[in-house]
Amino acid sequence: MSTPLGELARANGLHLHDAASPAEQARLMADFVLEALARALHERGHASLAVSGGRSPAAFFKRLNESELDWEEVTLTLADERWVPQDDPESNAGLVQRSMPNVFARAHWVPLYRGLDPHKDAAAVSTDIERLLPLDVLVLGVGADGHTASLFPVGDHLLENLRSDAPALCQAVPAADQRLPRLTLTGAVLQRARVRLLQVNGGEKQAVVARAFNAEPREMPVAAFLQPPMDIFYAPNHEEPHEPG
């Protein structure tokens, strides 16, 4: 039985990798990313990878950490980050370091948080990221409100920041409600990545992405990325039944 997400992905030229569990999803994602990075290393002698934070990627990170890739020739960075130091529990960099310590120690790490102020940090990151363009592999997630990276619905300059020709490569995102200030890569980096993945976990997130196929990016920013090249990796939550796509 096909799921609505699988049908929508196929109709838009995307490939849905439908896993039976989060563990299988982590394995499929890691194999896919490692193959893409190995191809970049073979073709260009170096590779770049940008990942996202949250709870879902931890198992995927641990799979990467077990790999035999030549990580010394890989540059690793984040799609977005809360404006907190690495030792803060909310830090995406801290999650990456804890989940894949071997990779973190060997790869060339480009942090987003620099400890100056969000705008100065964004300018510094933009300078560092420019030499990596286009990124070889990008891994995105999605929030219940349809945000991806730290590109939030109806945010300031959102449509400008989603464009592939956005004027800044990294943008400061102000605090809002209970949300900390953040830093995010913009469409000028994210839209130009050679290989793009979207990790989707659970029925709620599956429904969010399905809605986004027919939504405006201003309302659901992930909609701006639902076009080739994009591979979606879906898994139900542990307690949910699996419906093959």
* End-to-end CA span: 6 Å
Order of helices and strands: HEHEHEEHHEHEHEEHEHE
CATH architecture term = 3-Layer(aba) Sandwich
Task: Tell me the domain tally.
Answer: 1
* Contiguous runs where pLDDT drops below 50 for at least 5 residues: none
The CATH topology? Rossmann fold
Strand content: 15-25%
Helix content class:
25-40%
The largest sheet is: 7 strands, parallel
CATH class: Alpha Beta
Overall mean pLDDT: 95
Which strand order do you get reading across the main beta sheet? 1-10-9-6-2-3-5
User: Which structural class is indicated by helix and strand composition?
Assistant: alpha/beta
Given the structure, what is the number of helices?
Answer: 9
Oligomer: single chain
Overall shape: it is globular
Number of strands: 10
How large is the radius of gyration? 17 Å
Overall description:
This protein has one domain: Rossmann fold. 35% of the residues lie in helices and 18% in strands. It has nine helices and ten strands. A seven-stranded parallel beta sheet has the order 1-10-9-6-2-3-5, sandwiched between helices. It has a three-stranded antiparallel beta sheet with strand order 4-8-7.
Topology, element by element:
Layout: H1 4-11, E1 15-18, H2 22-44, E2 47-51, H3 58-65, E3 74-78, E4 80-82, H4 92-99, H5 101-106, E5 108-110, H6 118-130, E6 137-140, H7 158-162, E7 170-173, E8 182-185, H8 187-190, E9 195-201, H9 202-212, E10 231-235
Parallel strand pairs: 1-10, 2-3, 2-6, 3-5, 6-9, 9-10
Antiparallel strand pairs: 4-8, 7-8
